Structures are given as structure tokens and as C-alpha cells.
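fold-stage: in
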Amino acid sequence: MRSYYSYPILTGTMFLLFAGSVTRAGDWPMWRHDADRSAASTEALPPELHLRWVRELPPYEMAWPNESRLHFDASHEPIVMGKSLFLGFATDGSVRAYDTETGELKWRFFTEGPIRFAPVARQGKLYVGSDDGFLYCLAAIDGKLLWKVRGAPKDRPEYQHLGNNRLISYWPVRGGPVLADGVVYFGAGIWPTLGVFIVAVDAETGETLWVNDNSNYLSQVRIDHNTLHEAGLSPQGYLLVNGDRLLVPNGRSFPARFDRKTGNLLYYVQGYRNGDCRVTTMGKFAFVGTAGVMSVEDGREVGNRWVEAGADAPNVFVGSKFHLFEGPMFPYKMIPACDFRSVLTPGFVYGMDRGRFYAYDLTHPQVSEYDKEHGGNPLKPWRWDLPLLWKAESRLAKGNPPSGVMIKAGDRLYGHAGKTLVSLDLPTDGGAPKNGWEHQLGETPSSMLAADGKLFVVTKEGAIHCFGAKEDEATRHALEEVPLPECDDPWTKTAAQILAQTGVKEGYCLVLGLDEGRLVEELLRTSELRVIAVDADPVRVDALRDRLTASGLYGTRVDVRVGSPFEVLLPPYLANLIVSEDPSAAGLDPKTHAAKLFESLRPYGGVACLDLPADIRDRFTKAVESAELPNAKLQNAEGFVLLRRQGPLPGAASWTHETADSARSYFSKDQLVKAPLGVLWYGDGADYGFYKSKDYGVGVKPQVVGGRLFAYQIFSRTLHAIDVYTGRQLWQTKVEHFTRYASTKDGIYVAGADKCLVLDPATGEVLKTFSYQIKENATPQVADIRVGADVIVIAAAYEKVRAIHRGLWDSKVLVALDRRTGEQLWKLEAKDRFNNNAVAVAGGMVFSIDSISPTETSSAERRGDVSQAATAEILAVDARTGKERWRAMTTNPFRDYTSSSNWLGVRGNDDWLAFAEQTGTLLTGRHNEVHAFDAVTGKEIWHKKIGGGQPIIVMGERFINQAGHTYTVATGEIISGKSLFVRGGCNYAVANQHLLFVRDRCASYVELDTQEKHYLRNLRSGCSNSLVAADGLLNAPCFSVKCVCNYPIQTSFAMVHMPGVEGWAGKEPQDLSHWRATGQPAAR
């Protein structure tokens, strides 16, 4: 924790329990009015309100549209100071001021990134945080920049990457600013391994008072399943002030508490469930999302019994003590209309649900037990209640309309019943509450505020409605889009030539250096490109921003940034196309910038197309040639110089099957993915990323080939292709039930029912359709697929089930097709069954195991029909003819591997095999028995008892089991001293030559040469492997949707080798064990 400047000592009497207004009483100066986020103003509005004006707004852009617990920006959120309404925009990164009387625009100021949080206003100044990593202070009267402060340290380069589909800082301001006692607090950065910073600055001068920079690396943090683990903060949500504490929302987790005077972290519990980025506070409590309530005193949920349990409190996962977990597993707040949306005052909580108003007594909370049975254990979790003071129905309550927004102004509550605004006058002198003013809005409110004698209502449909005392005809400010002009000027021809010469029509385009922006406009108008333009002249940039914002394209198709065009720190591999309107004026230095341009080009065909004067062209050519850029192709065409990045990155490799390859090695040959790793991109939305519900191993795992990630969404039955370098969705297509697929450079082989489709990897279009038959008048149900050098092998069943422990991975028939023609070459029927974990294609052969399934052994045990052993027949056949090469039998314990429907027991203990290419060895096993055979002759080489489960990772002459131990393929001897990893959560480890990737609660990786382990700390990977090292990146599509565990973020992402970031994750963690035991921080 760095303390840059001394902080003024504030005595206890100077901290108010109810954070007071820092502006005049009639203002609404920050989100939900004040630093408590109470949504309560003392200003009374006129009893009857009339619509004064309406302003239509651009569509708002949420950072995390698919995860409600991260919806800190689910609405436009204006504030009001004096006669101005201020509003920040995520689309164009601007903050705008509007006249409260008329709705007219007063001024607009652009930042360099999306603004996702409401500004804060105080004494003529406006404070706004941006995804560009800065907190800005503007003059409220005209928007003039007074000062700005960067959240990250000054010695950190201003790196940018794609975050939530926008080019943003590595350290975006996602801890929404709050102001109290002349200090503005905010948070920057969401990736603990890149650094996270909580900052306090003087509201007048911008002087940094303190920075907490060590809360990104914490140990002994209570997380899900009552585990103590390494973690790190990921601040996302509006910061709050409660007395002398600063509360920092932590995305999907519980908020962290800081000492406001020093910036030191107080005790923190990440929690198991109920976490949320939307937090409000009053008195002793913080309301977290819709389900959580936290004690501000100790940072724990009010439903926890861990403290009260004393010596009986569990510190690990104990089924009989679920009710005593430090992070409660069971619900404890059951009362309606009491959550982050409620209005808070020092003594009361006011809420609204389904058209009904509720009032609760906040001063007399009640805790009681209730009965719960879980896993056969009788449990007694706590519940937390507030006494209900009264309940009042609006006139529309009988229809149970949704009611999601509510505020208090004076002695009146304002809310909504569906699309109708309603109000309620609070009871006085022991009377009853009374229904008041109503207005049929016709739109759904998403936010409200009361200020300047007016009620402002923001709607989901995208408008601000202003209501006041005057009954005049309302003014409507329509959102008018001005289409880009269809001109016939030199830029029209230039854009056409560029598109024709490069062949690029979609993807990301960098325009480095502007003239007037006409090339940008033409590329947008005549292609599907997403354009990022950079120029050093802020006047030129703002003029172009104005035109593009008016066209409705800014933020969705185009971003324009101020900066030195050839010096800005852009992410590698971003651009399908790089152009410039004036490279000379933009400062192109061929010797310095040729290699930098090349670094920004996407592999597999990214191209820079520049119109250069002859002298600069010659220098550029020489610079490219002398740099010896790998896979670079330089050519001249119609006055342009084209620098193209051909093919894959040297040293990169593919991941063609969910098992890495058809040999089932679970090992990537990619040489580029190594520590340290930085985040290249992250986010999931309608046209970027990939998000999939946790499936406990049921679905197909992701594959990467040719710069594209292929992932299957099992519930919608759609196969998706994602650009691995940007997260951009390339295509999606509908497929059959029980689809399995394998990915190669020439096609995506998609097996479903009695067809195998070959899809174009670039477009998803069907190139070929192959049919096959396993039995007359029988439609196959596909279990799996392998694609070898010249054959396709499909494992199919006559009937299929969804559950793994009932045989989802089992098949009855193997069918081989010619990979080129689709001709059915042969089929092989099992005596008992094949299973997906024991089918491989390698070395010109198909290897399989025919054995009794765990389902059958389980049924036999229940019948009392238990044999002494279960045999497994290992068969090797010629891949082209199906002719037997050899067979062998192994004997295994006859036991129930399903472990009462536990699919992990099936995966870890069922038959498996893997081909070790380097030694020509076939490894097989079941339960703790492992056999090695000569793959050509079938001669058994060795047989050992080796635990740890499968899948094994075959790394040349070694293999690693799921206990993290390394063995030689040749002898089966163990060669590792200690386990490389611990698995935490339902997943398995995979590897490349440098790193091993595994879920140990959060996503993590281990350096194989040093055995150093790196936790990402803020998110988990899938229930089965979703960490794929391929095409030079660690690819991680989101396979954890609907997971209730409190990981701060939930997203797809990609990481890239990035020397220089290794120190950013922190050197020594803050250990919270002393805090937990004593309630006090450890000595520093």
C-alpha cells in the first residue's frame, strides 16, 4: 500500500453516519443521491407533476450484458446540480450537460473510453471516471477540463486492449467514483494479475491522498465451498461511504471494506453466493444485490453462523456443517422489496415489489433459525429479517406489475407499476400512507432522480422524461441519426482501391493518422469493418467524433482516439487492416514503426495498406526487409505498399479435438504460450465472445484452428466461430442434437445423427455432407468423433441419454469414413460398449476399448450380481480397412464407478487410452491400473498401479496424471518430486511445453520448469476444460454461466505472452488469517 501524501486526520465526530450532501439540497449529485447510495432526497416535489420535456438517448451499452450480477451500468444514470443534468455515455465516451428546464444540450466533453458510471458533482465541478483509466474533473458550467488523474501508477505504460468489445485501458475506472468530505474515491483495474488500484484524491486539486495497490494479491480469503484461497479484488460497481469506511463493490463477489483515512484493506470475505456489484448502505448494513446483506462492522454476511459457531466453525467443506460456512450457502433474507433497489434512511428501508410499497424498521433487525435438510443432514441456517412497519398497494397492484426503481423525495416515495409512474405519501402522525400522483409513462423506468423541483425518469427504451410543476406542452428532443454522406471524392476511390487490393471487408481496421476523416467514413459505409482511428489533433478527432456519433455508428462500429498514431500502445494481432489518411503528417518513421505496424497485424492475412511517397516507400521497404519479420510479405499495388502477415505465428499450434488431437494427448504443441501472460481481450456479448452454461462435462470442449476458436452452445444447439485475437464472433450455425465435432484447417467436421457435415472454417457454410449407416432403419446418436490423416471415425449409439453417469459418453459402433470422399470404409460393433475416453486415431490405426460400462457395474452391484473382475478388450485396427492389427485384454476391479450418479467418478475411473507419438506407445487404464503397449505389435511393455485419474497429459516421453505427478512413458516410473498442482472444482488439467493449465477454484497455470503457480484470482474456468493453448494464445471461452459462486467476473478472455507484467501481480500477499482469527489486522 503506497501512501503518496499525508491524509488529513478526521475525528470520529466529523464522520456522519448518513453521508450529507456536498451540494445544495435541491441537487442529486451522484448515483442514488449520496455516498450511501440511499436514493433519498430531502427535497419535496410539487404534489402534481406534468411532463415538461423528453430527450431520446442513444442505446446504452452494458459492459457485461449476460451477467445480471455485473449490471452496474444497466441504465443511463444522470445526476443534477443546479440547473444542469449531467450524463455519461458508454457509446461515445462523452459526458454531456443538459438544461433541466428545457432538455437542451449545453456542452459535451469526450474522454478516451466508455463512461460506465454516473458522474459526481460538487461545488461547480464534475468528476467522471472512464474506461480509459482516468478520473476527470470538469468545470460544470462549460465542461472545461480542470485536471485528470490516472488510476494506475505513472510508471505503467498506457497499455490498451479490447475489454467488453471496446478498446480500453488495462486499468479502466470500474470502481464508480464517490465523494465525501472533499475527497473523491475511485477504483481502477479489474484483473488482479495486472494490478488493481483504489485511489483517494482531493476534490479541489486532484492531489492524490492515498493509493491502495496491494489488494490485488490476498491469501487466506474465504471463497466458495468454504475454501480459504488466494484471491484478489476486482473493483466493479459504485463505491460507497459508510462512516469511516469505504466500501468497494467487487463485481459478482461481496464488497471489500477499506479504512477511509489510510486506504488499508479491512477484513474481506469473497463469499460463496449472493455477491453482486450493486451495493447500497445505511447504518450497520450494506445491501448487496437482491439476495445479500453484509455487516459493515466485520465484512461478513448477516446470515453467517461461522463466528457464533466458535470452535465448531468449519474451515473446509464439510457437508454436515453447510449452515456454519463463513460465506452462507443457504438463503437468509426472504423479505420482499428489501435489497439494493430499496430507499434507505437512518431508521427505515422502503421498497417496492409488484406494485406494492413496503416499509421496514432498520433499527431492529431479527435473526432466527430455520430448518433445512441437505444431503441427508439436518441443518439450521440463520435467517435475517426486518420488522414490517406497513405495506401499501398502488392502484395497479392487483396485476402484479414489475417494480424495479424507487426513490424518496421529501415525504413522498416515487416508483412504478409496470409502465405507470406511481407515488405514495408517507404516513404522518400515526396515520396511513396514501397513494398520490400517477402518470402513464408508456415506457419502463430504469432510473429516477428528484432535483431542481423536478422528477427525472430514465427508461429502458432510452429516454429521459422530465416532470415539473408547470403544465405546458412537452418538448421532445428526438434522437436523429444523420447517415454518412455518399460522396464522390478522392477518398471514395481510395477506400474502394484499398478494399479491392487487400480483399479485407470485415474485422478490425486501424486508421493511423487523419486528414478530415473521410477515409474512415468511406470504409464504414462500404464495408463491414470495425474501425479504430487515432490522431494527435484533439480538434480534428472531436469533429470526426461529432459526425460519427450523429450517424449512430460511434461505439458500435467505430472509435476515434487522441494520441500519437504510431506510438499508441495497441494490443498485438488486432488489425485485419491498417491504413492511414496521411502517414507522413502522422509521423510515420519507417525504421522505427515498420516492426510496430507488423506487430498489430492479425496472423493469417492481416495487411497494412499505405499510400507512401516514393522516398518513404523505399525506406519502409528496407526497414521491413532488415527487420526480418516472420511470415511477412511485402508488395506494391496501384500506388500502395502492402505489408501482409501470412499464416500462423511461428511456433503456434492448433487444438483440433477436445482432447487436443485425435491421439488424446491433452497436450498442445504451441511453443508461444508461456509466462508471464497478459490479457489480450475479454468480454461476451451478442457479437463477441462466447458464453455457455456450466454443463458439468456434458458439452463439447473448445477447439482452436487457423486463428478461430470453435465452441458449441449445447442448449441452443449452435456452433460458434470466434476470432481468437479479438473475440469477434465470425459465424454461428444450427446443428443436430448430440453433435460432436473436430476442427482442422480444411474443415470443421460436425457429426450429428447419420450425417457428418464438413463446414468451411471461415464462413460456417457446408462444404460437404457425408452420410453413413450403423444399422438398417436405425438413426445413429453420435457420441464422439476423431479425424485422422485420411479418415473420420465416428462413435455412435442406437439410443442416447443426456447424463454422463447413465452412458452419455458410451457408444455401440465405430464407423470410419474417407476424409476426402465420405465413403464409408468400415464399421466395428462393440460386444459391450466403447466410450469416448478410449477411442483414438493415430499412427495409421484406430485404438479402442470394449468393456462393461460403469452404469452396468452399478446395476449389477445393486442386484447383488458382483463378479470378481471386469475385463476390457483393447483393439487396434487399420484406420483405412478396419482390419485387426492386434488385441489385448486387461482385468480391472468390478465396482461401481458412478459413485451415486457422480459424473466425476465416471471420468476419473472409466476406461481410457492415449497414444504417445514420440515413443509409439499406447497407454491404457481404468481406475488405478495403467498399462503400456507397443502400439504396432500390441506387446505389453509395463503394467503399474498409478492413481490420480485421467485424462493423462502425454508430453513426448513423459506423461502427467490428474494428481499432478510426472511419469516416463517408457517405464511408468515416477519422475516428479511433488505434485505440480492441486485441482479445485470439477475440471481437469491440460498443458503445453511451458505451462500446465488447471482450475484450482479460480483459473490458474503452473510453470513446468519452476513449478511456480499463477492464479488469475478473479474468475473460474469451466466444469471441464476451457483453457486452450493454441495459435499463440491461452484461449478461454466462458463455460461457467449460471455458476452461483462469487467469482468477481465471468467472461471469455484470451491471454498472450507479455514480458514486463510479471511484477504486476504482486510480490507478497496480504494474509487475512490474522484478521479472521482476531478481528484485527496483522502487524505491518
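fold-stage: in (second)
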Amino acid sequence: MGFLHYFPNSCLVVCSLCTLINADDFLGCGGFVKSDVEINFSRVEVKLYTRTGALKYQTDCAPNNGYFMIPIYDKGDFTLKVEPPQGWSFEPTSVDLHIDGETDKCSRSEDINFQFTGFVLNGQVLSKGQSEGPAGVSVSLTKQGEKEPLVQSATKTGGGYIFKQVLPGEYTLGASHPKWTFVKDTLPITVAKDSSSPAPTITISGYDVTGHVMSEGEPIKDVHFLLFSDTVSKEEISQCDTTPVKGFTGTQAKTPLCSVTSTDEGKITFPSLPSGQYTMVPFYQGEHITFDVMPTSMDFSVAHDSVTLPTTFRVEGFSVSGRILDSKRGNGIPGVKVKVQDRSEVISKADGTYQLIKITSGTYVVTASKDNIFFEPETMKINPNTPRLPDIIASRFSLCGRIVIDKLPAMLPSSGKRRVSLIPEGGAAKDTVSVATDNAGAFCFTVKPGSFSVQPTLNTEEVAAGLKLIPSQQKVQVQNAPVLGINFSQFKAVIRGVIKCIDVCGTLQITLHSEGGVEERSPAQISQSSKTAPFLLRDVLPGKYKVTVIQNHWCWQTPSLDIQVTDGDVTSLEFVQTGYQLQCHVSHPIAMLYHNTKSPKQSKQIDLNKGLNEFCLEKSGSYRLTPLSCHRFEHETYSFDTSSPAMLALTATKHLMTGAIVAKQPSSDVTVSIRSSIEAEPLVQLGPLKSQKELEEEAKKTVKPAKKGNATATDEETKVAEDTGPYVYEFTYWARNGEKLIITPSSQVILFYPAKAQVTIQTGDDCLGKVVDFEGRAGVFLSGQVQPGLAGVKISVTSRSLEDKEVRPAINVETGKDGRYRIGPLPDTAEYNVQAALEGYVLTKVEGTVGDFKASKLGEITIEVVDEGGLPLQGVLLSLSGGTFRSNNLTQASGSLVFTGLGPDQYFLRALMKEYKFEPGSQMINVEEGSTFRLKIKGSRVAFSCYGMIASLNGEPEPDIALEAQGVGDCGQVVEEGISDQEGKFRIRGLQPECSYELQLKSGDVNSHIERAAPKTQIIKVQGKDIDNLHIIVFRRLNQFDIGGNIITPSEHLATLKVLLYSEDNLVSPVHTLSLGSSSFFQFPSLPNDGARYVMRLESSLSKSSWDYTLPEASFSTDGYFKHITLQFNPERRAVDQEVSSGSHLALPLIAALIAIGLNHAKILPILQQLGLALKGFRSPGGSEVRDMGGAGDQDTRPKKKPRTRKT
């Protein structure tokens, strides 16, 4: 039995036991259609189409459960569609199938399900008085008595909408929109069974119309807008003021329908206007003035959407004045530049007043400026109600001065820039402001009126260099004017000390570092042959310093001393050596045992951290060092000599790991195998291992018994109480870092969890310790029986891990003669599921047991299929379904088929085979428990096939060629298809008798590699039998494209030309380049005929300075097989007017020179001879260079691609 599930009132499309028959090569795809409500399955059809839309097969569902089966005889692409009555919805509506006999759903026996989701409900939202409506209205369907909508949708263009998947019931239809108004936004609606009637219509009463009125970018409020219309009456408009507007006389002959007033934001809104034509007229009147509003009127129409007026109304159309003061209620400031955004600036008068003329309403940013006086930008709203502007008050003034220094300390930068602090009187530290002087020492502050203290600030570098300034600060009072002219207008020590060494000091160094690194000195060299070495440092500037003795391989009591130089010398510094430094770099924390070779018994131990370690040796000489650790190093011991110190490097090569096995029962055969990922390491076998209890017992036996006086303790007194567990088995292994180990414990009586472990050794700072644990437990056995006792029952045990929930492969056994079975041992880390199966029986688990089953014999159906002559008919697909059972199988050579293992139920049987009609074609069958039902079905041939062969011209078979047989004449609506197999053979089924067909290759991409067939078409006529020996020869497409052409140009220019071929995707690097030589014809290497686009260009080496020409180009695509392109090149020599003109200008001085030479030839002739020789030497290289450069300037310097050899 399979896994059975029950679905009430459902019909699942499945592909169960889809079988590919060698004899007739067809697949069976069958299934059901689901529904959560009662429907008539017989009204639902399922059809199989080719991708071109040709119907291949159709069937209806079984009336009891809707099961159907469709045979598919050809591989290829198909579409399986469910076609119910109009208005019924299914999900999905179709399934695309690519039948390849292996990976598609039908071939893999996968279900294809269609679910009935409800009825389709159509409706429309209309504009009032119109036959159409808008898009974008939200419509919803809510079940009566509920609050949340069941389904929602939105109207499309025209106002239509669709609700899909609506089940029968009572609903409320609702419509909503954030702006539009409705005559009635909710309506009741009833959806009945088999219903597809339209929903009631919802009407929109009006749409919103919006616009804006502005003046110089500022919104204007209280502007009236009056509405006129010839198509809409006043009664149809809502939310619009019908009160007459005071003062409006109007230019319209008609009475306004209503009016609205602009808001503070200048927005105009008519909330609800029906569809129609309208005119809007603006009207704006102030208390003492009426402004012009443009445009004076605007026509607009309302259709089925909100309207935003395309043009903004503008109020077009006053002088304002203001003052500039040095303080509130203070004096006016003359000469201040006042600027209002992009207007020209104005200058304040002697009393500080200014005037802005020709201003319009709006918000402006007013800025004022004057040297050493500062003003904040003022944002002002200017309109007719603000003729007097707010005063602009000076907010800050300049406070300036200078710092003068005659000579800087050597360590300070020469820029002279320093900082000056401004401290408000009585202010907090946070109120202090600091600025930097320029290179000349000048500084300025921008301050508000008040009392201040000005103080130059010396930075750390300056203080360290001993710089001081006088005075240290100045008091300043700023009232209502700038304050200028605040001006400001500067010892070395000796350091002495001594160095004390364990042996002779030798050569040492003393360094002096300033705390901020301002003053850096070269180290002072000290050479002394005694154990004491004095030192002296001169010319030290005031500041904080660090004095350091340099000898990296020695240990010092204090290697550095911090001092401060103020106003006197620093003396009595002392450095004392305490030992010799040993540097050691270790890969892991360890303990190190070391001793001087002169005193090996006086060993010391020190703990070293990972990385670089430094420790001191009190005496000089040679030392031996031994690492103590759970890590193994390259050497067991290391040496160090203080006379030639060198850093020791200890790198661990192996690390000690441990593992443990904890078992609930003891075993003497526990072993562990360790396999390393390193090939050089052999397989290690550890064991048999002894438990910790055994090791403890053995250790106790090696200890001598204690005596009581002259007697020995008895066995009872030394006996240890027996322990029942657990039993711990430990093992160790030296491993390398990164080494991968597979550790496998084994025993004949214990199961281990996990069975094996793979670990990767990742060392840290600490010892590895325990890296793996195993648990040993006894196995599990499963046993049971089948009642009554039946032999040969297949028992399948599947398990699922309790840890990762992974399902393990099934274990299969069969029951013995008494119906009993036993399986084990099995791990106890899984839960087990036991199933039993035997053909012809239903096996159910006995309640209260794990592995006992009760066997019950099932019913069966025997089907016999014969042809018109009564002979067995093989290969007929018999589809049987009922309840949760379905089976699809083919009749054998005997024409019979037996369905066994059937439970009591009602079953639907259908017989399927292309080209045959069966009687009965389908039948309902009732099966009772243990019963047998027999049925004989007769098949009659109603259609036929044609057979043939497709080959190339040389007789080689052509596989995967798609053909079609298109009916002609009265059979023109019939199309059948087929595909050639690997041997080139094809079969087209389902040809109707007495019909003629036109046989040809299918068009489109399916046969894109075939250019043509011979014959192209052939007519076949079906006359009550199959048609054999059809032959078709196909010719494959060529896969290359030839391109050539010629150049029309005078022959003397051919040698200067090149033809370049570019891909349209890359116009930088040519694909091919050809030089013409003496021939005007050219031929490029072949290109693939893949439809790609190319560009052909012409290049010439003719100089542009001497020739005027245009280089032609042409583009083409590689469709077809050949392309010939003709290009024209007609260069014209440039005119030489400029050369003649240049010669003309030189003629006059040349004549004058010749006359002078004639008069003074005796003196000038030798000079001209020398000048001629010099000019000859100069012009000859220059002319050659110009010609070369001219030629080179027209050369193609781009890298050329090597021409490809054309394949023939």
C-alpha cells in the first residue's frame, strides 16, 4: 500500500504510474480537480495542446471524483489546460509540460493539481451621466456580517473591474477613493452557485479639481474663483459656495454656479465636480486696492479623473524702506551695502536709512555688509501690508591686533603662526574663542559688544622651546564700533649623570627626547673601559624630557628617566645595569627550565607567554634551556650565550590531544583507530584500552599492603566495593596543527555514538586537552509478528535521528513461516517506524504494539481488452481511480490487466489508446471487501498512423526533426505532429480515415538548424490503414557569412586606402583590416551568420593638409550568406592661396635686399655665401622632418589585428 491521504470533494491532477511503453511509446498523465465546495466535475474538461495551439487530446473528469487520464505519444512541449464553464476560476489554469521521458512531471510521476477557487464576478464603476468610468477606484467585496474585505480590486481604464475566486454567498460591494465622491459607495450583492452574473453598478458623483495662485513664488490667500458651465447645473455640484461674491461684477454673461477661495497656501480646490466642461474666473480685491490676476479666465474639462490645472494663477502687479543701526535704538550706520537676493544693491544714507523700489509680494533674504561691521541675513515677508521693514542691527564688530617676535627658538617653525585667545569678561571657559595669526603675526576677532581679555596662547611646542610673550594679556572694551591695534611684543640647561655596569661598560649611547618630540638630538656616544661611565648633555631648552640609556641586550634598573628643565641645571642622574636580556619567541605558552652551564644544579624555571618574551639572566656566560609543555618543539633543549646574544625561536610541531569513551558496560575489546590526513603518518591502532577503573585497580595492586604490627591486612579489608559504571576509556595522540583525524572506536559488544568522529586539530594558546568524546551503549532490537501468521510479508523499518531529524535508509526483512521477524541491533539514537506490505492484503498495526500487524485480504478488478476481431489488444492504458486510490497501467500481450489490493469503495475506470475507441470507454465499478469484478472492453480502430524516415543528402539519419500533418479540404481543422527519433524514423498518429494531409517540416525555431526539405511538402491520404515508407531529405543551414566589396576611386589613391571591419558592439578595435594595393576589390574572412551587426570603414593615408576628403562607412547584419558593399572615395587637392599670399608678402623685402647687395656686392657677397651654406644645412633636415611628420600624421597608429586565414 502507498501513503494514502483523503481529500473530500476533490479531484487532484496527478501523473501516477506514468509509464513509457516500448511498443507504442506514450506517457499517461492523469489526475483530479480539487474543490472545497460541491461542483459538477463532469462539466470540467482538461485539454492537451501543442505550443502552437493545436488540440492533441481532451477529456472530461470522472463524475464521482473527477479523475482523468490523458495519453501523450510524442516528446516535446505541450500545455495542459483546465477548461471549465465560463466564469469558473481554477488555480492554475494551465501547466506547461516539456515531455522528455525523464525529467518532466509526467515522466517522474509527480502530481499536477488544479484547484477550483470560485466564480468570476464582473462589475463597473461609472462617472455620473457617462457610459464609462475611471481607473484606480478601490472596490471590495465583504461577506455580510464581517468587517474585513474578502477580496479587493481596482478599476481599470473604462471603470471595469473583476473579482476572481468568489464563492457563493451574501456580500456587500464597496467602492472608495481618497478624493472622489460617490452617489452610493456600498451595495448588497448575492452570488449563487454556478453564478457568473455581473455586479451592480457604482456611480461617481464628482472629481476634485485643484490649482494654485501665487505672487512672485508666494502663495496668495482669499482669492475668489468663480465657476461657470454650459453642461452642468448648480444642483449637480456639491461642496462649493453658492453665495454671491461681494464686489464681483464679472465679464461673463452667465451667472456663476458657485465659487471657492484660495487657502493660506494659495491652493484652489473644487472638491466634487461631475464630468463636463467648465470655465473658472479669478477675482481678488484687498482693503484699498484691487490686484490683477492672470490669466483672467481658464477653461477646463472633467472626464474620469482628478484635474490639476496646468497653469498657476499669478497676482501681478508697491516701495518699502528700512534702517541700518549700530544697536537697538542706536545710531544709523552710513555706507552699508544692502542687497535683496538678485536685485541691485543699495547704500544706506548718513542716517542709516535705505529704500527698496518696485518690489512685489514675497519672502526675501536681505543682507547688509560693511568693513569690520557684520550683520545677520534677515528673512522678510514683503507685501502691501508691510511698507516699513524691520530694522537691521549690527550684530558683531572686528577686534584686531598683532604679535611681534624678533627671534624664534630653533625648534619652532618659521611660519610665525600662533594662536590668540579671546576671553569674555565673566564668561565661562566654553565661551573662550581662539584664532591663529597670519605669518606676520596679525590677528582679528569678530565679537559682539562687551568686555574681553585678549591673551596670546603658546602651544606645547613653543612652551617646550622656552618662548614667552609680554604682556601676557590685555583688557579690551567693545561698544558699538570696531576696536583695532591690540599689539603684543623672550634660558639653557646642562644635564649630568653616571652609568653603572656589571662588567666593563664598553660603548653605550644616551638619548634625549623632548616630551612632544619638539627637540630631537643625536644619541650621545659613551665609551668607558671601567664599570662606571659618566655623561654630560649641554644646551637643553626648558621643557620636559626623557633621558634613555641604549644597550638593547642588557637589563636596567630603570632604562629611562623623566626630567623637567625650568630655570636650572639637572644633575645626579644614574643608570644601573641589573642583568643580560634573553629574548625568546615561542608559538605557545610554556614553562622554561634554564641554568648556567657553570652551575648546572642551580636551575630556575620561568613561565613564557605566546609570542616574544624577554627575561634577564643575572650572570654572564653560557646557558642551557629546556621547554616543559604539552607541545613538542624542534629541539628538546636550546643554548644561549650572553657574549653573543641572539633571539631564540621555539615553534611547536606537534600537540598532545586526548579523547575519551564513556560506556555504561565494560568491554575488554575497545580499540581506537586514528587515520591522519597527512600521507606520511601511518594508521595508528590504540588498544585494547583499559577503563579508568581497571587502571586504578592495577595501580592499587602495585602498592604493598599495609601492616598492622607484625600482621598483614586481610583480603576483606583491602577489597574495593564493585562499581557498576560508567566505564571511561581514555586515549592520547600527538598531532600536528591543521591535521585532520578520523577517529573510529570499535567493539563487538558496544555501539558508539558517534560511530566515528572527524576532527581538525586547531591549536590555541592552551593545551589541546580532550578533543573528542564517544558514548558507548548497547544496541536496540525490534521484533513483531503478523496475524494470522503469513510468510513473506515485507517488513520495512525506517528511522529518523532524534538529533538532526534526518531520515535513514530503510531496513527490509521478510516474515518467517510463523509470521514473525526480528531486526537488530540498532542504535538507540533514533525513532523507528515499522511498516508491513503484502500484495493483495491490507496490513494494519495492532493497537498498543510497535511491530505487530493484522492482515486483511483486499478486492480486485480484472479487465480484458480485445479488438474488433476478438483478439487481445496490448498497450491500452487503463486508468482506475476511487477515493484516495488511483492507478494507471497498460494491458500486456494477453490484453488483460488485474488491479489488486482494492479496498471497499466506488471506482471509475477509463480505457485510453490513441487511434482507438472503446466500448465501454468508461464505467463506475463497486468493489466490496475480498470481491473480484471482471469486465471485458472492446476496442475499435478509428484513426491511423504514417511512418517514415528523415535523412540528410548522404543518407545519415536526422534525429529530433519536428513534422506536422495538416489536414486539407474538409479535414483542414485537423493537425497532428511527430518528431524523428535517433535513427531518423518518425510516426504521426491520429490520422483520420478518408482525410488528406499535407506532410511537412514544422516552421519556427524548432527546426532552426534546417534550411529546407525535399520534398518540401507531400500529400498523403488515409484509406483505412497505416501509411509506410515515407522518405524526407533535409538540408542543414550553412553557418558562415561572406562579406566583400569594391572601392570606386581613382587608381592612384588605391595604395593609400585600408578597409576596416568593426563589430557594432566595439568600434575601437577592428575585427579585420585589409590594404587594397592595386585592386579596388576586397574580400574579408568569413563571419558567423548569427545576425550580428558590423560596421565597415575606409581609412586613407592622404594628408589632410593637402587633400580634402570624407571617409565613407557602411553597416550591415550577418543575415543570409553573402553581402557586397561598394564605397566611394573622391579626394580633392586643397587650394594653395596661402602659399602664394605668403610669397607676395616676401617679394618687397627681397627686392630691397637684392638692390642693397648690388650696391655693396664687394662686402656682402662673402657674407651671403656663408649664410647660404648655413641655411642649406638648416633647411635640409627640417624639410625631411616635415615630410616624415606629415606622412606619420596620417598613419593609423592603432594596433592592427592579424588577418584571419579564410577557411574554404
